Automatic annotation (TrEMBL):
It catalyses: biotin + L-lysyl-[protein] + ATP = N(6)-biotinyl-L-lysyl-[protein] + AMP + diphosphate + H(+). Keywords: ATP-binding, Biotin, Ligase, Nucleotide-binding. This is biotin--[biotin carboxyl-carrier protein] ligase. One of its GO terms (cellular component) is cytoplasm.
Length: 245
């Protein structure tokens, strides 16, 4: 059965993810979508703050796929595919996917994804809240990576509600495939758009760094890093940086 979305919009909120986590704990149904014109406490992966001024898209979706935790974690790759497909249809510049879930336009980040989960069984979450931010009209300066927005990349000045309609249309069939067959069914599609596949990268893993060639990803989303000695190292979490061209 296809997921049916029910969209709620607010002018201002602390965090769309936090609000939907509360709704999830109260028994909210899958498919609830919360969009805000502005967030006061937006955040991204690893607790990083996410600039959330009006004009961009800030949205969270409540989902209940009932998958094991390791498989549920791959939903971030699915969200990146959906955002990438949306942006690719609107700009002429190359749109690529950077592990684990960034979308790049001309090498600059245009979106952020935050996936959170909860429930009584840690190994099988009762709910997922998928938070997505897409830079439509402006982008932050001084970020860890180069950033951009849809207008700066040569795309149209989409209103956030219209961008959300387009994003949900991209996300729904991908989510259904993921729900039915797992990320393994979408892995090759993700790899076709992967930034830096086969190139030298540097992975920062907390207090450690590892260099090598980006050799691909596993069906569970784990990054495969081939070291200079030919050893394949599997990386489940971290930040990657590309060597200068």
């Amino acid at each position: 059965m296809s997921l049916i979305f029910r969209v709620e919009s607010v002018a201002e909120i602390g965090s769309t993810n936090d609000a939907l986590k509360q709704r999830a704990a109260e028994g909210g149904d899958a498919g609830l979508v919360l969009r805000a014109d502005r967030q006061l406490s937006g955040r991204g992966r690893r607790g990083r703050s996410w600039t959330s001024e009006p004009g961009n898209l800030y949205v969270s979706i409540l989902l209940r796929p009932r998958k094991p935790a390791a498989e549920a974690a791959t939903l971030g790759f699915v969200a990146a595919l959906a955002i990438g497909n949306l942006v690719r249809a609107l700009v002429a510049q190359p749109v690529t996917l950077k592990w684990p879930n960034d979308v790049l336009v001309g090498g600059a980040k245009i979106s952020g994804i935050l996936l959170e989960s909860g429930g009584p069984e840690p190994t099988r979450p009762d709910w997922l809240v998928l938070g997505m931010g897409v830079n439509l009209r402006h982008h932050p300066a001084g970020a860890l990576y180069p950033t951009t927005d849809l207008v700066a990349a040569g795309g149209p000045a989409l209103p956030p509600d219209r961008a959300l309609d387009l994003l949900l249309a991209e996300f729904q069939p991908l989510y259904q495939r993921w729900q039915d067959d797992g990320f393994a069914a979408l892995r090759e599609e993700w790899l076709r758009h992967a930034q830096g596949l086969g190139a030298r990268i540097l992975a920062r893993l907390g207090g450690e760094e590892a260099a090598g060639t980006f050799a691909g990803i596993e069906p569970d989303g784990t990054l495969l890093l081939e070291t200079e000695t030919g050893v394949i190292r599997r990386i489940a979490a971290g930040d990657i940086f590309f060597a200068p061209a």
